[in-house]
Amino acid sequence: MKVNGAEVEGLVEPRTLLVHFIRENLQLTGTHIGCETTHCGACTVDIDGMSVKSCTMFAVQADGSDIITIEGVANADGTLSALQEGFRMMHGLQCGFCTPGMIVRAHRLLKENPSPSEPEIRMGISGNICRCTGYQNIVKAIQYASAKINGVEFQEAAE
Amino acid sequence: MNDLTPTREQRTAALEGMGCKRKRVEDIRFTQGRGNYVDDVKLPGMLHGDFVRSPHPHARVTKIDDSEALKVPGVLAVITAETLKTVNLAWMPTLAGDVQMVLADGRVLFQNQEVAFVVATDRYAADDGINKVIVEYEPLPPLVDPFKAMDKDAPVLREDLVGKMAGSHGPRNHDNHIFEWTVGDKDLTDAAFRKAEVMIKEMISYHRTHPSPLETCQCVCSFDKIKGELTIYGTFQAPHVIRTVVALIAKLPEHKIHVIAPDIGGGFGNKVGAYPGYICAAVASIVTGKPVKWVEDRIENLTATSFARDYHMTTEVAATKDGKVTGLRVHVLADHGAFDACADPSKWPAGFFNIVTGSYDFPTAHLTVDGVYTNKAPGGVAYRCSFRVTEAAYCIERAMDILAQKLKMDPAELRLKNFIKPEQFPYHSALGWEYDSGDYHTAMRKMMETTGYAALRKEQAEKRAAFARGETRDIMARHLVLHRDRGRRTVEKLRHPGHRDVRLLRDPYAPDRGRHRAGWIKKPRPGPRDHLGPDHRDRDRHSRR
User: Fold this and answer.
1) Which domain holds residue A123?
2) Which end of chain B is more exposed for a tag (fewer CB within 10 A), N or C?
3) Model pLDDT, residue B515
4) pLDDT class for B10, splitting at 50, 70, 90?
5) Whether B30 and A40 lie within 8 Å, measured CB to CB
6) Are residues A53 and A88 in the same domain?
7) Which residues pair with B184 in a beta bridge?
8) Chain B residues close to A87, C-beta within 8 Å
């Protein structure tokens, strides 16, 4: 399979979960495990253009696919992507545990819909749980990134 | 002063001290997946441990057979209470002065209690091993309802305490009784109720809550046999406490234990306690000489680690007909689960619950709290740093609303009538607190003005009337968060005689800690300040008190 643009290979037991393959075999520990039951979204990765919770998928099911993890979201020159910058600027995180999954999910959301409305953002990230922020600033972070990608000025909505 | 004199704002900005707007330094790592959480810690030769847990809430453990488990490829050891007993580690002290089983010692007292610890080369093998450990149980009647805990025929939960009529917080009245805590003047309060023109009585329950941080509890223990030193990486909100508990149990001096709390995926009070997983991983590392990782899953986190709340507060308020409160009587039944592992950093078994008179001028009050054992997971942690203040605030605010309903008074008006007046500060509450200063009336009026309180009430009345006429089904429930000065309470905690260091005992853990710690330190000149700040994450670099 391809992970963050690089070809990778591994021999695993059929029961190995994709998230364990990513974290243990590939040493990409940005993808987190929060619930192991597809509820929390901390393990979200992008597989062939879809957001997937890697804790309930076997590594072998991802054979031959193209995967993006949080480690592959930054710009090619190593600077923070619009989304990563948005999360920082809008204080879209506290403990940071849900953040990789949130950003990877939001990354796909903005590819599918570059200018989502607030309800569309909330619906779009509804599979990801954050215990710290209350989501308000995560929504703002995604709006910030959307504005930046579209080259328009970000207007923070009044609360 | 000339035009070149910087303004106060400019000076503050240049100094970059406290109160300055700053971006968090850790976000650069976190947004790129470069956090360093406990499960990211990987040490050479590291083993994995996992628990066999009880399916019963109350049962006798008659047999544990690990022979099949030890045949599973990768499984190296199965630790049980019998193993731990040989080194006197089967029980551990709790933060509340009780003791707790590390692994089921002849009995299980709550569902999903830890029964055996399987150590294996990886987490999959450990899981295979768990499924092969055969445990035989003889189920006993469970005690779930705290109101039945002290019944004569209630099943006795703690065999180790049978006949001990005193605990670490004083006398016990029943084998399932943990403590009784009394504050205030009973006679004066009884007299106030005898003279009361109006009284309310309500059982106000604050249900059991789980903090449920997104990252579950986990640790990596690594024992260096040559140096005789133990290093523990863990999701700890209170690393000092962990070091003390481990030192007490493992019989190692504290300076030989290195506790490192790396990035923490949320705590909410759940990561203050010491759990059997930490102890078992430490023991397994000492025994095998290899690092041992323990990571619980979500179900284990929700069912077996510390809960919060579970307070059942029978509350009575005495008042005059025109709404002046004259007395408060509260009895709390506190459900602590199978072991008293409450985490309130005070000498009191119910934390700061005696703040229950709230912002109101009660001439007299009387509070009793009874702690009881039930067949539930132990705990009583401070979900979001409440230390039982949240329970107290809910109790008194709900009681004030009930009183307002009874008196047919506006709840805001009732509060304004009973707030401690500005001229009463410093104020000494009937339950022993000193309130240094405050102006609750101004804050309340400001809130009412800002929210358009009178207009909201009018709208509510109109909508209710319309609803009653059957004109609309759209009735808006308006909930007003009434003025509660939480910052004040923190100060009060610090100011209470004998408790000046109550906050300092805890780790300054906060999700924003990188930025905050950097903010505590004035910027030296020249150079950036973002990599400054005492690193409290490593206990070795942080003095104990």
Assistant:
1) 82-149
2) N
3) 47
4) confident
5) no
6) no
7) B366
8) 27, 31
Same domain flag for B202 and B343: yes
Give the CA count within 13 Å in the CB-facing half-sphere of B1.
4
Q: Has residue A26 been placed in a domain?
A: yes
CB contact under 8 A, B215 and A35: no
Contacts of B37 in chain A (CB under 8 A): 29, 32, 97
Cβ distance A95 to B28 less than 8 Å, yes or no, reads no
Point out the residue among B32, B124, B214 whose CB comes nearest to the CB of A98. B214
Please state the domain count of chain B.
4
Given A48, A72, A96, which residue is the final one in a domain? Answer: A72
* pLDDT reported for residue B522: 42
Tokens of B312: 């059942």
**Residue B302's closest CA among A100, A34, A125?**
A34
Query: Which residues are within 8 A (CB) of A54 and not within 5 positions of it... i.e. 6 or more apart?
Result: A17, A18, A19, A22, A31, A43, A44, A45
Percent of chain B topping pLDDT 70: 86
Parallel/antiparallel/unpaired status of strands A66-68 and A2-3: parallel
Residue A116 forms part of a structural domain: yes
Number of separate domains in chain A: 2
The structure tokens 């101004």 sit at: B442
Q: What is the DSSP string of B93-135?
A: E-TTS-EEESS-SSEE-STT-EEEEEEESSHHHHHHHHHH-EE
Please determine, for residue B534, whether its predicted confidence score (pLDDT) is greater than 70. Answer: no
ipTM: 0.97
Q: What is the pLDDT of residue B99?
A: 94
Look at residue B328 and tell me whether its pLDDT is greater than 60.
Answer: yes
